[in-house]
Amino acid sequence: MGTNMNRRHFLSVTAATAVGTLAGYATGQQPRRISPNGKVAHACVGVGGMGYHDLTNYKSHARTEIVAICDVDKNHLNRAAELVPDARRYTDWREMLAKEGDRIDSVSVAVPDHMHALIALSAMQAGKHVYCQKPLCHDVAECRALLEAARRTGVVTQLGTQHASGAGDRIGVHWLREGVIGAVKRVILCSNRPGAIDDYRLLGPRPAKGESAPEHLAWDLWLGTAPEREYAPKIYHPAKWRAWQDFGTGWSGDIGCHIFDAVWKGMDLGATAPLTVKAEVQASWKGDRARRADVWPQSDHITWTFPGCKASDGKPYTMEWFDGLIFPPEDVQAMAREAGFNEYPAESAMVIGTEGAMLLPHTSGPVLLPKGKFGGHPKPKMPPRNHYHHFLDAVLGVGMCESHFQQTGPMAETILLGTVAIRVPDTELAWDARQLRITNSEAADRLLRRTYRKGWEAPVSI
C-alpha cells in the first residue's frame, strides 16, 4: 500500500495542475504510447459500489491490467484487493497519481459527484485517459472545464453511461436518426422508480451534531472539495450522499444522463444548448429553508426549451424531466397504455414527433407508437458492446468511444443546468451557453460554480 505523503507536497502538486489547466495545458503531459502487443495499465479511483462493478469490467478486458486501486474506505479497498491482489493500493488519489506516474495509462473515477472534476482534470493533465462516472461533474462550470480539457489534451474519455452501449439505446438512436417518427415536437423523460425516495432521497436537513468517522473511512479525504462537516452514520457514506447538495446532484443528476443519452445522440444535438430552463418542486421542500439549503427535493419537474434543429425540422421544442412523485402528464401515459403497457415505464424517454412517437424504457428496447402504424417497422440488429471495453479499446487505438466527453459534456451541462433551476424554482432562467452565464438571475448564476474547500481548489475558472 502507498505510504502517506507530505500534505504540503500534495497541495503543491494540485496547485501545479491548476496552473497547467488554466494556462491551456501548456505543461500537460502526453499519453504514454502502448506497444502493439502491450496492455493498458489502468488505475481505479473508487472501488466500492458502482466502482466495484466498474472494476470487474475493466479486469475482464483481455489487454488491460489493473495496476493500482484507490479508495478512502479501507473496507472497499480490501474487497477490491481480493479481486486484483497484485494492484498497488492507495487511500489518497493524489498520492496514487504522483507515485504511479508513467506506470499507468488510464484512470477511472467512481466517487461522489463533488470529486469528479478535480480527479478527472488532474488525471487528464497528467496525460491519462479518463473514464468518469455520470453525471460527469457536480457543477455546470466543471462540465465545461472537462469538455475543454478533453479537446486540449487529446486523451480518450468516456462517460459512465454504460446502457448507451446496450442494444436498446442504440436501436433508439438509430430510429431517431432515421426520422421514423417525423419532426420531434416534445420529449418527456422520467425517473419515478418505486422505492427510490425511501432509499436515496433523504428528507434532511443534516443532524445538528455528528460523530467521529469509523477507522476504516478517511473522512477528510472523502469530503475533499466540499465544505467541512462532521461525519454522521447512514446518511452520507456509502451511497446516501446523492441526496446532499454539497456532494450529489439529486435524482436528475444521478439518473438523467442514462435517460437523456439516446435522445441526445439520436437527435444529433451535439453541442446544442437550451435557451431556457425552469423547475417546479415539491411544496414541502420549497417552503423549508433548512432543507432547501442542504438536500435536494424528493420530487421535481424540469422544463428546457431548445432552439430548432434538424431533428425538429427547425422548430423550437421542449424537453421535460419528471421524478419522484411528479409524474409525466396523463396524455403521455395514455399513449403507453394504448400500446399495451399496464403501467407507464418508471424510467424512460418518450419522444413525440409529427408522425408518431418512440418510447424507450430504461435498460430495455424502444417501442414505436402507435403500434398499429409501426408494427412492421424493421428493427436493426446491434452487435454486442461492452461500454468499458469500448473505452479501453479506444485507449489502444481501436475506434471511438460511445460517450466521449466532447459528445456527452454538453448533455451533462444541460442536465446540471436543471439542478440549478431546482434551487431557484418557479423561475424561467435564460441561458447564455457561449458566455456560461444565466442572464436574468444573479442567484441562479452563482450556482453554476461553487467555492472549494481551502486546499482542494479545482481548476475550473473559465
Structure description:
The protein is of the alpha/beta class. The chain is built from 17 helices and 15 strands. The protein has helices spanning 7-22, 50-59, 74-83, 93-100, 116-125, 140-153, 167-178, 196-200, 219-223, 250-266, 283-286, 289-292, 330-338, 371-374, 387-395, 405-423, 442-445; strands at residues 40-45, 64-70, 88-90, 106-109, 129-132, 157-159, 184-191, 276-281, 300-306, 317-323, 347-353, 357-361, 367-369, 429-432, 437-438. The strands form two sheets. It has a nine-stranded mixed sheet, sandwiched between helices. It has a six-stranded parallel sheet with strand order 3-2-1-4-5-6, sandwiched between helices. A hairpin with a 4-residue loop joins β14 and β15 (437-438). α7 (167-178) packs across α10 (250-266) and α10 packs across α16. It is globular, with a radius of gyration of 22 Å. Residues 1-27 have low confidence and may be disordered.
